[in-house]
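One example copied in:
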Amino acid sequence: MSTSLRVLVTRPAQQAADWVARLRDAGVDAAALPLIAIEDAPDAAAVQSAWAGLASMRLVVFVSPNAAERFVAAQPAGTAWPPGTRAAAVGPGTSRVLRAFGLGQSQIVEPASDAPQFDSEALWAQLRTTDWQGARVLVVRGDGGREWLADTLRAAGAEVGAVCAYRRAPPRLDAAQRALLAAAQAEPRAHLWFFSSSEAIDNLDALVGPGADWSHARALATHPRITARAQRSGFRHVAPSRPDLESVRACIQSLRDRHPFQP
């Protein structure tokens, strides 16, 4: 078996393109196969209203890069981020969006760089020592998603609201992406699925239909919940990785070096 391995990045298109570029710069053969589509907010007026009320918020939590990108893009003309309002990011991709927007590091709360996972629990580890009694918090998210952090903040006394900045939808693959999917099914050992969302696996299952055999396919998953979801779809060989570039690159290199692959 060849040690050549093409990595299929399944994030939404914009983040997938960024990851593909960074992986290629690191010497990894990568291609974008977005398995989640990102659509406009269902209520644009609610996003504008959220911007108008930012100054009354102690904290704005962005649950994903898409949440930050879409909220920032909706900034009304003539407005600015209030200096007394901090922004929280669940992971480094979201933090990069906020820094590119112009927020300083002192304005951003994020999980520790050595956190085992970048998720709501890791972010709460940075927030839990603050007194949240009576504080107003806004969660910027897509449609649906986990409520754990919002519920935890409410239990700590915060007044938590939410605004939907985007909608997730099933992917609409073009001809090249469909060909890539077909190649991954035909040559499973020549491809590595890079999953950073359980929903991407849900959408993959819907695309290929029942009965797909993933038992010889390999996957990289950035959270234990995603690992478990991939295994339920029949992926027997799922490698865990932290979701930062160096960890992902090292995991891919390890998989390349295993010949033949051993689960």
About this structure: The domain at 6-36+171-257 is CATH 3.40.50.10090 (Rossmann fold). The two ends are 16 Å apart (CA to CA).
